[in-house]
Amino acid sequence: MTRNVDGHLVRDPHGLHAQTEDQLRQATAEVHRRVGDAFDEQAVQRAVRDAYEEIHDHASIESFLPILVARSAEQKLAAGG
């Protein structure tokens, strides 16, 4: 959500945080679907958050971010870390 502050459109940081959390939930669900019970919930969440931290600054199309993060997290888990 954006709002006008002194003539400038500014994104609401709460909305950005919620959007990020939604993307991370999507990515975590995708990784769980792919790896099944091979990894516990915490390991998957940690891999997703790590992958997100590596990828999000370089993503040019944010709508693809959840799937890119999920793929990276899955690769990290398969590689053992």
UniProtKB/TrEMBL annotation:
It comes from Lentzea miocenica. The lineage of its organism: Bacteria, Bacillati, Actinomycetota, Actinomycetes, Pseudonocardiales. Residues 1-21 are annotated as: Disordered. This is Protein-tyrosine-phosphatase-like N-terminal domain-containing protein. NCBIfam families: MSMEG_6209_Nter. Residues 24-79 form the Protein-tyrosine-phosphatase-like N-terminal domain. InterPro entries: Phosphatase-like_N (IPR048716). It holds the Pfam family Phosphatase-like_N.
